[in-house]
User: Fold this.
Amino acid sequence: MHFKIVSEGENQCIINENNSIGEKTSGDTHVIIPFEILHLAPPQSAPDFIKASPFSNEAGWIDVNINTLQHNKYSNVFAVGDAAALPTAKTGAAIRKQAPTVVGNILHLIDNNSLSSREYKGYSSCPLVTGYGKMLLAEFGYNNVRMSDPILTKLVDTSKEKWSMWILKKYGLPYLYWNKMLKGKMMD
Assistant:
């Protein structure tokens, strides 16, 4: 696999010291990295109709306060999910925590002409399958601070590789997604 070298400090994934993975440079601008399996995520972007709207920021995302999810210019607009300008992962786990914040703030705004005290702290999680029948859950908030979902931590330590976490990924998460999240049912 060939990668283009970027400016120093711009990409902290390529390490040229203590060359434990065997990467080597090729010319002035490329790095060759050996691998057994490669998974690359494409660049994420809001849809063009969002990027071209008055709701977007300079980067093309819906310009919201990262804790209240209320638009920074239009107080009657809120955003959740992939198009919101939030410095966190774009996952189902994130929107599961964003939606109650937005609902609470909208209802409080209607009743009291002010936002509630409910805030989104950047929670997201990524299931990491480490082998057949083994998984752990990377849970984090803003600034990559480790956070745990209180519902899950009552049941299991999500930071440890376990068969039960793999069962959660294979059966539990699809059930929660299709039967709870998409139907707007509260889970916490």
The chain has four helices and five strands. The mean pLDDT is 85. Residues 1-40 form one domain.
